[in-house]
Amino acid sequence: MKSSRFTSDNVLHENDEVLLLMIAFGSPPTRKIAADELSRRGRDVSPGDVALAVMTNFYTLGPTFN
Question: Which domain of life is it from (predicted)?
Fold first, then answer.
């Protein structure tokens, strides 16, 4: 199920999830690069957006980690 955050041009798009995962799991320099890129794209990012990306992708990729 997709969140409504993907429907407006002012908020995140599906291809931004990779950057959110970089923020969640990357090293501090990687987090800065990802945050700067999202900012450059004009995206508003909250901790909830990062958490939703992590939960969505772990649900999808979960069996990979078993």
Answer: Bacteria
Domain ranges within the chain, ordered by starting residue = 15-65
Among residues 30, 26, 21, 27, which one has the least CA distance to residue 51?
21
Q: Are 17 and 53 in contact (CB under 8 A)?
A: yes
* Cα pseudo-dihedral 9, 13, 19, 23, rounded to 10: 80
Residue identified by tokens 């987090």 is 31
What does the pLDDT look like over 1-30, one tens digit per residue? 444 444 455 556 667 888 998 999 999 999
